[in-house]
Amino acid sequence: MPSIVIAHDMRPSSPDLSAAFADGAAAEGADVILAGLGSTDMAYFAAGSLNMPGAMFTASHNPAKYNGIKMCRAGALPVGLETGLGDIRDLAQAILDGTDAARADARGTVSERDLLRPYAECLRGLVDLSGIRRLAVVVDAGNGMAGYTVPAVLGDEKLPALPLGITPLYFELDGTFPNHEANPLEPANIVDLQAAVVEHGADIGLAFDGDADRCFVVDELGQPVSPSAVTALVATRELAKHPGATIIHNLITSSAVPEIVTENGGQPVRTRVGHSFIKAEMARTGAAFGGEHSAHYYFKDFWGADTGMLAAMHMLAALGGQPLPLSEFAARFERYVASGEINTTVADPAGKLAEAEAALTGPGAPAGVQADHLDGLTVRYPDGGWINVRPSNTEPLLRLNVEAPDADRMAQLRDAALQVIRAR
């Protein structure tokens, strides 16, 4: 008998959607485990620890009116068009066309299981925080699922207390997001966290997105710590556990990431931007860890899945295991100046991308310039600067990311790229 585990977030529509999905799966003969409220990484934990497919009802960081399903195979393995989504699409179309008559011989069962404590125990077993110096931590849950998981993992709701003094912001579960959108990638959504860290004299601030699979970090001065710096820092800790291991990073993470991975004996592998590409490379290479500049962090020890909470715990362990404030400690992993992602609406993304390549790499380009097309166009310069321009998969946009050894050079490269992209 096939089985599936289902969880859902705090959006008003999520419980009903989850229940309807469970009823449909049971009607088709599957035994269903309802895990109830959970973060997306808790759903991955369920699929991994129970070794069964999982479905998580969430729209992540998107506004309240949206909802969706994140699915995975048994063992938290990713699902793509070639590994199940294509079959689901074809079966759905057959049902809509009235040509699918197959039905299960017997209805499956539906049962409930509380997985919050086992999830917390799993994460505590991967990162030991019991011996760190005491840290003052502000956590902004954004009215999302971190308000449910942080007290269990970092607090004393389910397990013994850790040397952490946690100041909560917006822990009330509310899928209408009354305080700010649960998308910490947007600077406006971490303003409250930044202010609270300074006000409370905290050592670190953590911001989670709506389904708590991403974590953003703020230092004691209220300044954001780059997700690339977090990737590099966590990579060093994973390499200490898995010497010589492969570390995955996407192509818009800082050049500091592969440099630091190599310096620590690891093997950096560069990949396209996107959840599916990172997970595929994690599986293909057996990587110990993978990081994206969007603050998704993937761990071999967590079934290759992404978990913001485990990344947060690594940051707490690293910070609490040494005496420096986070601003000074994180500076070791910040070697370059980045532009952040700059989006431009264009009528013809492919045509504009070709124009950019001609302008940036053609006659008149500096000697030693190199270009590749792993994801859009990446142009690398001998001084360590680089430009990446890639099209959006869903909108008529070009996304620009630039990095250079200093702010002036970054601005020069950024403006040169924008001049081409935004030319009429």
Structure in words:
This protein is α/β, with parallel strands linked by helices and 424 residues long. The chain contains 13 helices and 20 strands. Strands 15, 16, 17, 18, 19 and 20 form a 6-stranded antiparallel sheet that branches. It has a 5-stranded mixed sheet with strand order 4-3-1-2-5, with helices on both faces. Strand 6, helix 5 and strand 7 form a beta-alpha-beta unit. The termini are far apart.
List keywords for this structure.
424 residues, alpha/beta, six-stranded antiparallel sheet, five-stranded mixed sheet, 20 strands, 21% strand, globular
Describe the structure concisely for a colleague.
The chain has 424 residues and is an alpha/beta fold.
Gyration radius, in Å: 22 Å
Percent of sequence in beta strands: 15-25%
CA(first)-CA(last) distance: 60 Å
DSSP summary, beta strand count: 20
What's the pLDDT, averaged over the residues? 94
What characterizes the major β-sheet?
A: 6 strands, antiparallel
Helical proportion, percent range: 25-40%
DSSP helical segment count: 13
